[in-house]
Amino acid sequence: MKPGFLPGITREVQVVVTEEMCPAFNGVVVHRVCSTWSMAHLMEVAARKVLVDFLEPHEEGIGGHISVDHVAPIRVDKLLTVRATLTEIRHSHVWCDVAAYDGERLLAKGRQLQIVLPRQKLAEILERA
Q: Using CA of residue 40, residue 88, residue 84, residue 100, what is the dihedral sign?
């Protein structure tokens, strides 16, 4: 990892909630709000933004875990902000606290893990997949 990769680094993603982000089962939209899985995806994106600028050319990150507590809805056409904050670096494991907001209102919170590996080792792992 490049110098300066320390707990406290924060990155965010902002998107307007769209119909495609709504929970749908068998093609039927259940609610016109952002789904938990869409929030989880954006949490992964925000956590990736924490990591990406600090990877060395021979390194790559891969997701290893995400937990999400979805506590409130946000409707279609509203601005969703997802924030990731680096909280822990343990060997090759990079943990971020992640949270989603509608303005100041908390919508979801959780933790995300990325595992940093040499690109060659990751390529070997993915080749066996």
A: positive
14-34 pLDDT, tens digit each: 999 999 999 999 989 999 999
Question: What is the pTM for the complete model shown?
Answer: 0.93
Neighbouring-strand partners of residue 89: 94
H-helix or E-strand spanning residue 121: helix 119-127
Residue written as token pair 């990079």: 94
DSSP line for 83-99? EEEEEEEETTEEEEEEE
99/109 Cα distance (integer angstroms): 4
Residue in the structure block whose two tokens are 């390529």: 123
Cα-trace Rg, the chain: 16
For 83, the token pair is 């924030």
